[in-house]
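chain below, 117 aa
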Amino acid sequence: MAEVDHHVVGFTGLVPTRDQDQNPATVAEIASIYLAPEVWGGGIGKTLMVAALDTLAQASYCEATLWVLDTNTRARRFYETTGWHSDSAVKQDSTRGFDPTEIRYRRLLARSPQHSM
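prediction:
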């Protein structure tokens, strides 16, 4: 969780992978990551990501994945500049009445207390 002046401005949700083609014992998923728009570009997102990756590495996961909308260029650029890469997996989720396309991103987890980004 990220706070500014005692107000929550960001958070992450971490789970073992939910993807059938991945091993939940070694692969974790960032199921959600949110940062309030008013704090975008200030380094809080990067700090939040480092904390999430450290938590997953300390829990003995080897890799992390996340899903992002293919049209979310801002988020994709953020992930790519912080060491994530698309692994070519794609899915569509029509449970909300429309068919957004999501792309899976992945990265290895370092075994050190701080990740370089």
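The first strand starts at residue 2 and ends at 4. Residues 2-108 form a domain with the Aminopeptidase fold (CATH 3.40.630.30).
thats it, cya
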